[in-house]
Amino acid sequence: MGPSGSRRRMEHILGGTLTCRSLFSVDSGYRMNDNQLINHFPNHYEISRKDLLVKNIKRYRRDLEKEGNILAERGDSKYLHLDFIPTTFVLPADYNMFVEEYRKAPQSTWIMKPCGRSQGSGIFLINKLSKLKRWSRESKTPFQQQLTKESYVISRYIDNPLLIGGKKFDLRIYVLVTSFRPLKAYQFRLGFCRFCTVKYDSSVAELDNMYVHLTNVSVQRHGGEYNSLHGGKMSIQNLRLHLESTRGKLVTEKLFDQISWLIIHSLKAIAPVIATDRHCFECYGYDIIIDNSLKPWLIEVNASPSLTSTTANDRILKHKLLDNIFSIVVPPSGIPDVRWNKIPSTEALGDFELLIDEDLVNFQDNSENPNLMRSGYKWK
């Protein structure tokens, strides 16, 4: 903790999620001053825990259905506009519902993940119900005992991922949120793709080969095919150029529109339950997979995305990310503070783009402003 001389007279408290939790604990007796900021919201786990993210998105859909909102329209038992997470259940609690869904397509593959872990830890794939008998036993224990056991989410595996060079990849996209009520968020343009080191193979023989299925750098760097020069990463700008040349410009634009759409609505889904505080801001790392029909799927959201640099390009990107975050939340002298300006300046945003601002009135009248031209922004 400490004041920054080059910024306005503010104190930045940069800490992990446990630091944030203890700061906002009633027992701590600590109260932040007007000139202090912290880089987490108190209950950020509502979006970063895999089970709570799914729970909040499902609740968001139900609430929109009750309102008769067109966004919650269904077709063939699926949501037409909010179908951006794979079918997911929490185990052991939802075991019976999972079995019912599994039996509709018994040849499908599912992926199991511990709710509270990261970096690919504890993840495995299953294609037979017999492998889950232990979860069936746990689901029949008293609820109080379930709380002491580690919960998992089980999701329908995206077994038709878009491949480049025959390899599976996902997207890491950074999103900065400065307020949840009203929702105000920014999307970083300089994200990247993370590739598996082994060519994709959906056969049963490769079901346990995590170098085929998991894109986490923490997993892939231990593989024999890992290249430390590029770290198995490619910029999103290069991905976009690749897709425009192979699939066409219009479908590529639609894909990135849909990515902005799912980010916005995942944030709206958790906004009602987040303990918003004017001292808080948070940078999230969104992990998104694209299937071979160019449909994006939200896999998970990280409240403490890794800032470790594995390559020179990685270091440049993450330095820009941090610098741009502080230019928004604590602008240097001479740059207007975007927190008090309805239309942020290009200088203040850097490589961020305004994704959504619920407090902005008549935004369509300002369509000539390039900072409001994000296609996702129209979905306020």
From TrEMBL:
PROSITE patterns membership: TTL
Segments traversing the membrane: none
Segment forming the signal sequence: none
GO biological process per UniProt: microtubule cytoskeleton organization
Major site of localization recorded for this protein: cytoplasm
Keyword Cytoplasm attached: yes
GO molecular function annotations of the record: ATP binding; tubulin binding; tubulin-glutamic acid ligase activity
One GO CC annotation: ciliary basal body
Catalysed conversion reaction: (L-glutamyl)(n)-gamma-L-glutamyl-L-glutamyl-[protein] + L-glutamate + ATP = (L-glutamyl)(n+1)-gamma-L-glutamyl-L-glutamyl-[protein] + ADP + phosphate + H(+)
Keyword Isomerase: no
InterPro entries: TTL/TTLL_fam
Subcellular localization, as worded in the UniProt entry: Cytoplasm, Cytoskeleton, Cilium basal body
Keywords: ATP-binding, Cell projection, Cilium, Cytoplasm, Cytoskeleton, Ligase, Microtubule, Nucleotide-binding
Source organism superkingdom: Eukaryota
Record note on quaternary structure: Part of the neuronal tubulin polyglutamylase complex which contains TPGS1, TPGS2, TTLL1, LRRC49 and NICN1. Interacts with PCM1, CSTPP1 and LRRC49.
Family, as annotated: Belongs to the tubulin polyglutamylase family.
Protein name, entry field: Polyglutamylase complex subunit TTLL1
Protein's organism: Aromia moschata
